[in-house]
């Protein structure tokens, strides 16, 4: 497997960005009568549409056309997943926030990420309804469309708007309420991609949730590029092939949150 240079990474970044612009345009043009909505096992709120499956198949084909070494972790269907993070591992969330997409027609995203030998390398989050693509990585910087994003200001918890999982907050899972009440304010958005976009624009400076690999992968790349900490509260390593409960936050907010939980 040949390692990609910075110039090659930039080319891949722009290629995938164009893909997400195209898929976003198609999603915005999707009519209600074109949607087929199904329900996954386990929760009536966990829905899937024909756009989820067609987007994923399209992205898998296109990724494999530019990366013969690609291993793919994707949300829908029975695509065989890699057992390790060795080599090129791509993550796909074809519609993130499907409930928002179907019922609100806003606040949903399309997400793709590339990790090389376990290292967060490139990430893309298309905020579909505003036609914004957040993209880049540690080698090339982080951008919103063509605008380079500024590193995050290191705010503390009482200065921070914290985005949390509404379902876990209502269920009383610890320490969601503790951290939400300690922050300046908290928000519930129903989409990991939209939550990450708030962090990138510094409209929020913390995000606490349990995230599947495809929910976390792209956001982690871009968040770490901008100076956010992406860790579990107990400091355990993040396993990108399983779900993780993570806090994505400024250094100050992360340290203060860990102290609150331990106390």
Would you give an account of this structure?
It is an enzyme of class 3 (hydrolase). This is Inositol monophosphatase family (SuhB). It comes from Fructobacillus tropaeoli. Its EC number is 3.1.3.25. The chain is an alpha+beta fold. It has two domains: 6-148, Fructose-1,6-Bisphosphatase, Chain A, domain 1 (2-Layer Sandwich); 157-262, D-Maltodextrin-Binding Protein, domain 2. The protein contains eight helices and 14 strands. It has a seven-stranded mixed sheet with strand order 3-4-5-6-7-8-9, sandwiched between helices. It has a five-stranded mixed sheet with strand order 11-10-12-14-13, sandwiched between helices. Helix 1 (6-28) packs antiparallel against helix 2 and helix 6 runs parallel beside helix 7 (213-225). The chain is globular. The mean pLDDT is 94.
Describe the SSE topology.
Blueprint (H helix, E strand, L loop, with lengths): L5 H23 L8 E3 L7 E3 H17 L3 E5 L13 E9 L1 H6 L5 E8 L2 E9 L4 E6 L3 E4 L2 E2 L12 E4 L1 H6 L4 H7 L2 E3 L4 H9 L5 E6 L1 H13 L3 E3 L12 E6 L1 H12 L1
Parallel strand pairs: 3-4, 10-11, 10-12
Antiparallel strand pairs: 1-2, 4-5, 5-6, 6-7, 7-8, 8-9, 12-14, 13-14
Helix pairs in contact: 1-2, 6-7
Distance between the termini: 48 Å
> What is the CATH class designation of the largest domain?
Alpha Beta
For the biggest sheet, the summary is: 7 strands, mixed
Helix content: 25-40%
pLDDT averaged residue by residue: 94
Strand content: 25-35%
Total of helices = 8
Number of strands: 14
**Strand line-up across the major sheet:** 3-4-5-6-7-8-9
- Which regions have little confidence, pLDDT < 50, spanning 5+ residues? none
Protein name: Inositol monophosphatase family (SuhB)
GO molecular function: inositol monophosphate phosphatase activity
Keywords: Hydrolase, Magnesium, Metal-binding
Enzyme class: hydrolase
